[in-house]
Amino acid sequence: MKIAVLQFPGTNCEFETLVAVKAVGMEGEIFRWNRPAGELSGFDGFVIPGGFSYQDRLRAGVIASKEPVMSALKEEAGIGKPIIGICNGFQILVETGLLPGSIEKSSGNVDMALAQNVMVSQGKIVRRGYYCDWVNLRHEAPSKRCSGSFAIERGALLKIPIAHGEGNLVTTTPGLMKKLNDEGQVVFRYCDKNGRIIDEFPFNVNGSTESIAAICNEPGNVLGMMPHPERAFFAWQLPAFDPRKQRPDEPGPGRRVFESMKRYIEVNA
Amino acid sequence: MSMNRKINLRVWLKIPDAEAATVKNTLIRRLGFGNVLDDVKKERLFSIEVDSGDPEELAKSFAKELVNENKESHIVLIDELKFEEDYVPVKVALHIEDGEAISIRERLRSRLGFENVVDVKKATVWKLYFNTLKPEAQIKAGEIAERLLINPHKDSYEIMI
Known about the structure:
Chain A is of the alpha/beta class.
């Protein structure tokens, strides 16, 4: 079971992502964007890690989305291989049209955007721009719905950090939000520590429509999420106020995303 | 009848513009525009509406705040916006709320005391240099905008010819 962790110029989370991949028992390697794209077919799954591909020039993720490696990745998605895009990886998947669109769509239509953060509280904009914090996520999809949350039960709460300036899901596509909700494509929402969805800052950390933090494509093999599970993979990575930090041998909540990917591959092999 | 005046600041880098170079490379090497596109340059555009004061003098003050003369040049256009003939200008702006433009407006009004500032709009103008004649160049400019320069869920564009 071999995972490619894609690296574009400006990616900066590839090494800790690779550690997470290997720590759950998968093989993995960093796959540079300028390797022959056809070599992707030798892998069983893919992670596009966080960072600032191409320095976020033009807008986050768009330049990387035009690379040949992403065309090859579309083909891999089309045969059901799992892909997880984290933060900038999510932005790249959106600009590629892999999310939220169905993989049959060959036109490369972009159905949504991850726009600049706008933090709203009590009807007022209280903050904008880059934001970095620990957030609570509620798993919205049924287990086995999505590759990256395959082994996570619906309603589970995960504390995972975010760090981004453009994570505000917006769309002008008619009916898209209903489709995402109806078809279980909303994978995680931002919530409070008890799992309540409160659609304003500081719970909705970036103004994202319906507090959405992660979505998957229609078949469920492609997941995009703004939070960074690789930064909460081990308990020792948790913030000082979390009692689990004192039990460093325990797994962190982010581990469940990578375990899910492994389980998804095992079940679908 | 409104007596408001509009001060347009066109601002561009006088050092190499890496973002414009990346856009040019992507258009030529990845999106197949190499046979028609010669070059890509970029400007920032601030359109500042004021309800009083001498616009020429105000423009000088605004430029001090919004332009870094160490690396940028600019020109001022009052109540008009025109571009040179040798490229197709494509103006890209957010159609969702533009937080940066609002921040600039508040900075000018509240922190710097320009209470005559009514509104600030911000855009990027992509200057597309083609080796084809105008009608085809305009069509290509539209294609470039839709395939790369904008995400239609948050941006809109206008070809400024």
